[in-house]
Amino acid sequence: MPDDPLAHVVAALEAERDALHARLAGLAEDMAGFFEASRDSNADDEHDPEGQTIAFERAQLSAVTEQTRRHLAEVEEALARVADGSYGRCEVCGRPIPPARLEVRPMARTCVEHAPGRR
């Protein structure tokens, strides 16, 4: 009996999902550390010499966290497409997505022709 041709894709997506969950946990710890460090401080961002730096770092951490959440959602959606049998088919035209595209971007939902930003 031949191996499941999507087994390597599923394994890679599951590994990516696990890594993203771990990264989100680390980012949450970092954010908690920012809040804990500033909890007992009366300083505000405008008057504290380090306030602007801390505010920038907090904003940057928030942006990275949101980007990681979006990437995790893409991975989970790809796993759902594998489960429902629609993985590897363009959501626009229904044709197969070329294997080279899926290798580079396993979460791809469309063929290159219908990729967002094309036209």
TrEMBL record:
Entry keyword set: Metal-binding, Zinc, Zinc-finger
The keyword Zinc-finger belongs to this UniProt entry's keyword annotation: yes
Pfam families: zf-dskA_traR
Sample GO molecular function, one term: zinc ion binding
Top-level taxon: Bacteria
SUPFAM superfamilies attached to this UniProt entry: DnaK suppressor protein DksA, alpha-hairpin domain, Glucocorticoid receptor-like (DNA-binding domain)
Zinc finger (dksA C4-type): 90-114
Domain Zinc finger DksA/TraR C4-type: 85-113
Protein name (record): TraR/DksA family transcriptional regulator
UniProt organism field: Ornithinimicrobium humiphilum
Lineage summary: Bacteria, Bacillati, Actinomycetota, Actinomycetes, Micrococcales
